[in-house]
Amino acid sequence: MTNTLKNFMDEHILIIDDVLYSLVGKIIAPEQLKDSMLYSLKAGGKRIRPLFVLAVCELFNNKLKEAYTIGAAVEMIHTYSLIHDDLPSMDNDDLRRGKPTNHVVYGEALATLAGDALNTLSFGILARMENVPPAIKVELINLLSVAAGAEGMVGGQVLDIDGESRSLNLEELEQVHVNKTGALLRFSIEAGAVLSEASEEERRVLVEFAHHIGLAFQIQDDILDIEGTSEELGKTAGKDLASNKSTYPGILTIAGAKDKLAEHYEIAISLLEKLNGDTTILKELAEYIVRRNK
Ligand code: GRG
């Protein structure tokens, strides 16, 4: 990782964390529910989605305070999706990021409710943002609802589950991931543009960038599941090859998946050249995604 990206992360992640914890800390709710929500928020996520919101806002020199709130909202949705994804009725995983999953610590009922509470809180914090014109808040809330719901992440999860019982072709696999993984990344990038009141053309370019980054992210995730250099090694390594689940390496071979990853990365980077302003951080975040080892 370059120093520029490291400084960007060091500067923003501390604030993202503070904002997240204080937003949950100050709600009036049963303590065990707040503990369960905070447990997963504090379990060591990379904060990629909030970092993308901030990177786009920095590109347009805009409204960082509100960008942290939007980043917190998308991180809450992401965290809820992981809690629910790990439940016995879904993936039934005992470990996430090397730590016991939420339901292992708090029980299935509270874990389900902590996910529900994070999901709903995310929309509330967007609605309560100060210094953002109401029309922009409504647009952000609408975009997040589409990205997180049936037309986005939840729909993608359903396609993914459906795909476990049969082999998907490349087009179908892309459809799963455009929704399941891509939708929240796209929201993060588009939300930065909406908050910054970017032009239609800038927004279009950024959404296309997000599309390729989302797919690159998932391909790297599939490759890591097999090459397993992360703390998840032993838990997920080889898992997707052993199960019926369709993956990029499964369809394309590992070498083919790496080529596809490079293709999406190159397209994403070339799209950034269409934007005015300093796109260094966006470029480096894209590189971080394709080179990450966890
Ligand atoms: C259960 C409603 C519901 C949705 C589940 C997103 C999702 C849909 C499930 C999560 C499981 C999974 C492997 C999703 C693919 C996306 C992905 C690679 C998530 C991990 O994101 P990172 O790497 O996670 O940003 P960290 O741990 O850094 O926060």
From TrEMBL:
The record, for Gene3D superfamilies, names: Farnesyl Diphosphate Synthase (1.10.600.10)
Name the cofactor(s) required for activity, per the record: Mg(2+)
Q: Please list the GO terms describing molecular function.
A: (2E,6E)-farnesyl diphosphate synthase activity; metal ion binding
Domain of life of the organism encoding this protein? Bacteria
Q: Name one GO biological process term.
A: terpenoid biosynthetic process
Q: EC?
A: 2.5.1.10
Q: Keywords in alphabetical order, please.
A: Isoprene biosynthesis, Magnesium, Metal-binding, Transferase
Q: Which reaction does this chain catalyze? A: isopentenyl diphosphate + (2E)-geranyl diphosphate = (2E,6E)-farnesyl diphosphate + diphosphate
Per the record, GO CC terms?
cytoplasm
Q: Does the keyword Magnesium apply?
A: yes
PROSITE patterns attached here? POLYPRENYL_SYNTHASE_1, POLYPRENYL_SYNTHASE_2
Family classification: Belongs to the FPP/GGPP synthase family.
| Name of protein | Farnesyl diphosphate synthase
